[in-house]
Amino acid sequence: MIRNETEYQEASARLAEERNRLADRRSRLKEAGLGDEEIKRVIDPMESFHLQLQEEVESYERLKRGEFEELDNLRGFGHLLISLRIAQGMSQRELARRLGVHESQVSRDERNEYHGITLERTIKILDALNARLHTKVEILAPRETALA
């Protein structure tokens, strides 16, 4: 996951380089007389990496536009907290300042996608991000009550 503007710029540059490298490699393989199937076998791993990098860049761009994915049973909540910071154009340093912690703490938390943080800490982070979380609970099917 791209977490800041520097990583985004580096990933975007690498994506452009990979696109050119991919085209060059395909051209050289064709010149070497390889058939379409052989070229595909050689190029597929490179394309897979390229597509993954492209998805990361596009995901960061969506976050900067404030487009978030829905959560299911809070799965991905840590990713959402990181996304909120990115969407606001806030650096890890600024978030750390607002939380009264060292920047390295925010970096560690984000690297771990806030795994295991307390509800109290979550509220502090949401407040520091000037964000509000709304929840909707649905009971999917009534539970059967066991008769004693």
What does this structure look like?
The protein has 148 residues and is mainly alpha-helical. It has 6 helices and no strands. It has helices at residues 5-31, 36-64, 77-87, 92-99, 103-111, 119-128.
Question: What's this, in brief?
Answer:
It is built from 6 helices and no strands.
What is the secondary structure topology, with strand pairs?
Elements: H1 5-31, H2 36-64, H3 77-87, H4 92-99, H5 103-111, H6 119-128
Helix pairs in contact: 1-2, 2-3, 4-5
Mean pLDDT, nearest integer? 90
Helix content: 55-70%
Distance between the termini: 51 Å
What string, H for helix and E for strand, traces the elements in order? HHHHHH
Low-confidence stretches: none
What is the count of DSSP helices, taking H or I runs of 4+ residues? 6
Total beta strand runs: 0
How much of the residues is beta strand, in percent?
Answer: under 5%
Largest sheet: none
CA-atom Rg in angstroms: 22 Å
Shape: flat
Provide the structure class: mainly alpha
Task: Record keyword descriptors for this entry.
mainly alpha, 148 residues
